[in-house]
Amino acid sequence: MNIVKLGMVSAIALGAAAPVYAQSAEAYAATDLNIRSGPGPQYDIVGVIPGGEATMVEGCLDGQSWCRVNFGDTMGWSYSDYLAVEVEEQAVALTTRPATVEVGTVTYEDPDGTAENETEGAAAGATLGALTAYAVGGPIGGIIAGGIAGGAAGSAAAEPEESTITYVRENPVDTVYLDGEVVVGAGIPTTVTTYEVPETTYRYVNINGATVIVDNETNLIVDVVR
Fold first, then answer.
1. Mind spelling out the 3-state secondary structure of 17-39?
2. Contact, 202 vs 171, CB < 8 A?
3. How many whole angstroms separate alpha carbon 168 and alpha carbon 174?
4. CB 66 within 8 A of CB 39
5. Angle, CA 133 vertex, CA 131 and CA 134 arms, to 5°
6. Cys-Cys with 74: which of 47, 60, 89, 224 at CB 3.0–4.6 Å?
């Protein structure tokens, strides 16, 4: 299967993976959120934090939206736009946290893959956009109760039928890499080619190593096939 790279993260921080500050923080997944083996969409998915579940954030890369997390027996990296922290009883994305919420800074070293990832990222460029994230906000209780994916996706959040899931699994397509993370409610740029699911209003595509089902009218992700 060919791999098409659009907007891959190209900058990977180097150095020993150790926090600058001693403190870690508890955050909640605003929706079912991937844990990846490294800080970028090109890394393998090694686990998922269910929407509304808490995870420990060991630290975040300086100037990037990736944080090292510890969820149960799984350690890896998650996208901070969808990790919510509590600020005055409101849910705030870890990416946009105020200075009062202190999280350690970590760096990342991938001696076997960093040079290759940087080269591929530079070649791909970032001119074709990224996944459009939805805003994390509202009472923190709403996040804890089960995430905000349904509300974020709006009318496009209808659950696809099992026949649709079966079809996309049996008909794999090329992978496209975009900045950001695949979650229900995220928007796909119109520059990305999606593929028809017969006799439905859905289309599908593989983004960042995950097959997603897309609403044909809104171009919003309605399901991540796991």
1. CCCCCCCCEEEEECCCEEEECCC
2. no
3. 12
4. yes
5. 150
6. 47
Residue 117 is given by DSSP the state H
Is residue 144 exposed (0-12), middle (13-18) or buried (19+ Cβ within 10 Å)?
middle
Rounded Cα distance between 164 and 144, Å, is 30
The secondary structure of residue 154, as a DSSP letter, is G
Phi, psi of 78 (to 5 degrees): -130, 160
User: Strands 175-177 and 74-79, how do they pair?
Assistant: unpaired
CB 136, CB 81: distance < 8 Å: yes
Helix or strand (DSSP H, E) at 114: helix 114-124
Return the exposure string of 149-166: e unless at least 16 CB atoms fall within 10 Å of the residue's CB, then b: bbebbeebbeebeeebbe
**How far apart, in Å, are the Cα atoms of 68 and each of 35, 57, 76, 116, 138?**
9, 6, 6, 21, 24
Sign (positive or negative) of CA dihedral 101, 102, 107, 108: negative
pLDDT (tens digit, 0 to 9) for every residue of the chain, 226 residues total? 554 444 444 333 333 333 333 367 899 999 999 999 999 999 999 999 999 999 999 999 998 999 999 999 999 999 999 999 999 888 999 999 888 888 989 999 875 554 455 444 433 433 357 899 888 888 888 888 877 654 444 444 568 999 999 999 999 999 999 999 999 999 999 999 999 999 999 999 999 999 999 999 999 999 999 9
